[in-house]
């Protein structure tokens, strides 16, 4: 092998290794409830944190592309509530205004784009509405 190839080969290998090692995947992220229990009612604010699972750090600047709130955990998937994205107070948290008209468990279904990730993060978070 020529000396110039001895120098170039490790550099190419490191570049390839670095590009795959640095890339996470959509499964490396999850939404979690900041407060998993809240009072039932109209215009309830549900705040979720997007977490990078390997580091445990909150992920700011994701773009929410789809939301849905329903009562599927209590067998009432047809009971869907409207959802509106509202400003959050902290980086890495995402707030939504929705109606939780009766006590019970609600699922928040989300799809989000994380900057630098080619795949869409899909998550399901269960929250509980109480009297």
Q: What report would you give on this structure?
A:
With 131 residues, this protein is mostly beta strands. It has one domain (25-130): Sandwich (Immunoglobulin-like), CATH 2.60.40.10. Helices cover 15% and strands 53% of the residues. The protein is built from one helix and ten strands. The chain has one helix at 3-21; strands at 29-33, 37-39, 41-52, 57-58, 63-71, 76-81, 83-86, 93-100, 104-113, 120-130. Strands 1, 3, 4, 7 and 8 form a five-stranded antiparallel β-sheet that branches. The protein has a five-stranded mixed β-sheet with strand order 2-10-9-5-6, with no helix packed on it. The longest helix has 19 residues, at 3-21. The chain is globular and about 40 Å long. The termini are far apart. The model is unreliable at 4-22 (pLDDT under 50). Keywords: Signal.
Compact description:
This protein is mainly beta and 131 residues long. It has one helix at residues 3-21; strands spanning 29-33, 37-39, 41-52, 57-58, 63-71, 76-81, 83-86, 93-100, 104-113, 120-130.
Mean pLDDT: 87
* CATH fold-type name: Immunoglobulin-like
**Broad structural category:** mainly beta
- Total of helices: 1
Distance between the termini: 75 Å
Number of domains: 1
CATH hierarchy: architecture: Sandwich
What is the CA-atom radius of gyration, in angstroms? 20 Å
CATH superfamily: Immunoglobulins
Q: From N to C, what is the helix and strand string?
A: HEEEEEEEEEE
Helix proportion range? 10-25%
Strand content: over 45%
Question: What would CATH call the class?
Answer: Mainly Beta
Pfam families: YtkA
InterPro entries: YtkA-like_dom
Keywords: Signal
Protein name: FixH family protein
